[in-house]
């Protein structure tokens, strides 16, 4: 079975329709975690009363962040820590909703029977600034181990299933569907589910540039209201959701089925307590200095009106 995801990098310029209805460009990586956006676009063709939406596919987080930071896209579905880091660097982003909850698994080779067996082994994460990295740290801590007990490497997500099958790494944690691929290929197994380590963990968020929000408040409200409505539908995980994925990700149905079992698309409001747990983990792991406060980073105005 091939586990190839087709990536293309797109560059796009912000667009204003002649009649003033904005086209909102939202960047994404083809991962299970952006499922609500796929469904939104698939069901409604990207055209709504107050705005049009255009999903712009990227092949890597740095490429996506570059487009977001320079205003080539108005928003993105992105790892929350990367967006927090951008905010620290002075890019005025606001998180308006979560992408999902849970939905990460720790994959290991079959010889690994417990977390302790990972001592001295190579373990892959997608990015230093990721919930996957925080989950790894929490898993090790739970077993009385230190982060330094494992040789942690950053690796592009699509490479991880092959690296595991070739014994270049002993395990990995990454956005889906790359965990499900290793299981489906019978090359790896689920060592832990993310909710065993950190229930309802935050991972991806829907962010918008604050300059866009401030000059397009009606469109922002409509976008978030529609997003919440679609997320409730997505949680049913019915054929509409599966058909939506077909349009945005080339992935085997069995892999997608498994990966959707692990993820939750409901309750996407960003809660202060949960955000602060995440923020404290960033500080505890010394990932970067002065992560933004809840008030600086999160704008729940729109989701509160939507719910
Ligand atoms: Zn995610």
Question: Can I get a quick summary?
Answer:
40% of the residues lie in helices and 19% in strands.
List the helices and strands and how they pair.
Elements: E1 15-16, E2 22-28, H1 35-44, E3 52-57, H2 61-69, E4 75-79, H3 80-88, E5 93-98, E6 101-102, E7 104-108, E8 122-125, H4 131-142, E9 151-154, H5 160-165, E10 171-175, H6 178-184, E11 189-193, H7 194-197, E12 204-209, H8 210-215, H9 217-234, H10 239-248, H11 253-261, E13 263-264, H12 272-284, H13 294-297, H14 301-306
Parallel strand pairs: 2-3, 2-4, 8-9, 8-10
Antiparallel strand pairs: 1-2, 4-12, 5-12, 6-13, 7-10, 7-11
Helix pairs in contact: 1-9, 1-10, 6-11
The protein binds zinc ion.
Zinc ion (ZN) is lined by residues 33, 99-100, 175, 203-204.
Describe this structure in words.
The longest helix is centred in the C-terminal third of the chain and has 18 residues, at 217-234. Helix 1 (35-44) packs across helix 10. Strands 1, 2, 3, 4, 5 and 12 form a six-stranded mixed β-sheet that branches. A five-stranded mixed β-sheet has the order 9-8-10-7-11, with helices on both faces. Strands 6-13 form a two-stranded antiparallel sheet. With 307 residues, it is α/β, with parallel strands linked by helices. The protein contains 14 helices and 13 strands. The termini are far apart. The relative contact order is 0.20. The model is unreliable at 1-14 (pLDDT under 50). The protein folds into two domains: 22-101 and 203-306, Periplasmic binding protein-like II (D-Maltodextrin-Binding Protein, domain 2, 3-Layer(aba) Sandwich); 105-197, D-Maltodextrin-Binding Protein, domain 2. The chain has helices at residues 35-44, 61-69, 80-88, 131-142, 160-165, 178-184, 194-197, 210-215, 217-234, 239-248, 253-261, 272-284, 294-297, 301-306; strands spanning 15-16, 22-28, 52-57, 75-79, 93-98, 101-102, 104-108, 122-125, 151-154, 171-175, 189-193, 204-209, 263-264. Bound molecules: zinc ion.
């Amino acid at each position: 079975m091939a586990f190839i995801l087709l990536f293309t990098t797109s560059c796009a310029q912000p667009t204003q329709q002649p009649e003033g209805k904005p086209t909102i460009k939202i960047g994404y990586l083809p991962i299970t975690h952006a499922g609500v956006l796929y469904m939104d676009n698939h069901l409604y063709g990207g055209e709504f009363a107050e705005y049009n939406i255009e999903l712009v596919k990227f092949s890597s987080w740095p490429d996506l962040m570059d487009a977001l930071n320079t205003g080539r896209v108005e928003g993105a579905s992105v790892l929350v820590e990367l967006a927090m880091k951008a905010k620290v660097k002075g890019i005025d982003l606001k998180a308006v909703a979560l992408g999902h909850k849970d939905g990460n698994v720790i994959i290991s080779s079959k010889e690994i029977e417990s977390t302790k067996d990972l001592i001295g082994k190579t373990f892959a994460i997608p990015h230093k600034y990721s919930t996957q990295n925080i989950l790894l740290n929490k898993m090790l801590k739970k077993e009385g181990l230190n982060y330094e007990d494992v040789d942690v490497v950053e690796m592009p997500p699509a490479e991880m299933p092959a690296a595991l099958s070739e014994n270049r790494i002993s395990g990995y944690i990454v956005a889906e569907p790359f965990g499900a691929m290793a299981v489906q290929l019978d090359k790896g197994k689920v060592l832990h589910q993310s909710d065993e380590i950190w229930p309802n963990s935050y991972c991806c968020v829907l962010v918008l540039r604050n300059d866009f929000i401030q000059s397009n408040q009606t469109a922002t409200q409509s976008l978030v209201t529609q997003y919440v409505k679609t997320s409730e539908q997505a949680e049913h995980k019915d054929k509409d959701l599966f058909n939506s994925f077909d349009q945005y990700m080339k992935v085997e149905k069995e892999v997608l089925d498994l990966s959707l079992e692990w993820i939750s698309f409901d309750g996407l409001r960003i809660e202060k307590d949960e955000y602060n747990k995440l923020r404290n983990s960033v500080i505890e792991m010394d990932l970067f200095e002065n992560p933004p406060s809840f008030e600086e980073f999160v704008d729940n105005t729109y989701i509160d009106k939507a719910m």
